[in-house]
Specification:
372 residues; alpha+beta; seven-stranded antiparallel sheet; three-stranded antiparallel sheet; 18% strand; globular
């Protein structure tokens, strides 16, 4: 008979929570029962068979805690979310992943995984082998190409001279904070709105965690972009849920649906996120906010700037760890900003540039008022 190693201690705690709480047990059993047996629901995003019970789910979680993400194209870096990809889209799955007790255990589980991903042992996927992160043409005499861990590779910096800051000396241009793809641009955003309904409108009060500054952005604009796992994850925590879906979303016919494309707006109000409020030297820009959003297991957002620090255009302010992420730039109604027509929604690109309605003699120096 095959040897089944015991669960990691944090997974044992997870199992006890499920089996000792009748509501959680009902939710987890129900979410697996609700998954159709037909394609595409019979496989996870990596092409593996869909898990059908919570014991197998916990076994996979326990295994993943000592594995770095392998390369699977667009789904690379999301091994835990691949397990819950279909289950969390069911009604019972939404109850399960939104439960506060479950999210506390998720937090402990991802803390364990984070420690592994910053260790030397996590370098095992930094190879040219199948599902390794390097192509066959990559050559290096250094062990693991010089990277000290998976996270060291994931948060790698560009070589000097790569990705120059566009319009670095043009004070009338605001550059995007991340290498990302446009998800949505919204205007006249409300301070409070029903973010859980179909369409997931932005709700500033919930996005900014009830911060007193939220009212100043009412009627303003929100830009949101998302990053794939293969993109640059540095930027030039409000606690939340890790795998939450919009309550209005679910299985959409035989084609299924891709949560990463539908739930981006919803997670601005519920996912783990970090806020950086910036006061521009130019009063015509005034207060703005950068919001980093940790998606699913990629819940770690690290700021590398401090309160009251002056930052220049293109200067690094922080980074995401461990996978794909999302972010928002939030502007007040008084900030009359327009967006470059050169980039369409969901158009992959490297650098976004934002052009005001008119040349405003905008300063490229910004004042960090505080981080949350």
């Amino acid at each position: 008979m095959p040897y089944n190693p015991p669960f990691h201690p944090i997974i044992q705690e997870f199992q006890q929570l499920i089996e000792n709480n009748s509501e959680i047990r009902e939710a987890v059993e129900g979410m697996f029962m609700a998954i159709p047996a037909r394609p595409p629901y019979d496989t996870d995003p990596t092409g593996g068979p869909q898990i059908r019970n919570y014991i197998t789910m916990l076994s996979a979680f326990s295994h993943n805690l000592t594995q770095a993400p392998a390369f699977y194209g667009d789904e690379s870096g999301l091994p835990f979310d691949s397990i819950l990809y279909w289950p969390r889209q069911t009604k019972c799955g939404q109850v399960f992943v939104s439960d506060g007790k479950i999210n506390k255990v998720f937090k402990k589980m991802f803390d364990v995984w984070a420690r592994f991903l910053t260790s030397r042992d996590s370098c095992h996927v930094l190879t040219t082998e199948e599902h390794g992160w390097f192509g066959p043409m990559v050559q290096s005499y250094a062990l693991y190409y010089g990277f000290k861990s998976w996270d060291d590779f994931f948060t790698r910096r560009f070589r000097p001279g790569q990705r120059p800051v566009v319009c670095a000396n043009d004070s009338a241009v605001i550059n995007n904070a991340c290498e990302s793809t446009i998800y949505r641009i919204a205007y006249n955003v409300k301070e409070r709105d029903m973010f859980w309904v179909k369409g997931s409108p932005y709700s500033l009060h919930h996005m900014l965690g009830g911060d007193p500054l939220a009212a100043q952005f009412a009627g303003g604009a929100v830009f949101q972009g998302y990053l794939s796992t293969t993109e640059y994850h540095r930027w030039h925590t409000i606690p939340g849920t890790y795998f939450a879906n919009s309550r209005s979303d679910g299985f959409l016919g035989d084609k299924g649906y891709i949560p990463g494309e539908i739930n981006q707006a919803y997670i601005t109000a519920v996912a783990t996120r970090m806020l950086i409020f910036i006061e521009a030297d130019n009063a015509k820009i005034g207060l703005m906010c950068f919001m980093a959003i940790g998606m699913v297991e990629i819940s770690t957002c690290e700021a590398t700037i401090r309160v009251s620090q002056k930052v220049k255009k293109g200067q690094e302010t922080g980074m995401f760890h461990f996978g794909g992420s999302s972010h928002c730039l939030i502007f007040r109604e008084q900030t009359k900003i327009s967006f470059s027509p050169n980039y369409a929604i969901s158009y992959p690109h490297l650098i976004l540039i934002y052009q005001p309605f008119s040349k405003l003699n905008m300063s490229s120096l910004f004042q960090i008022t505080r981080t949350v």
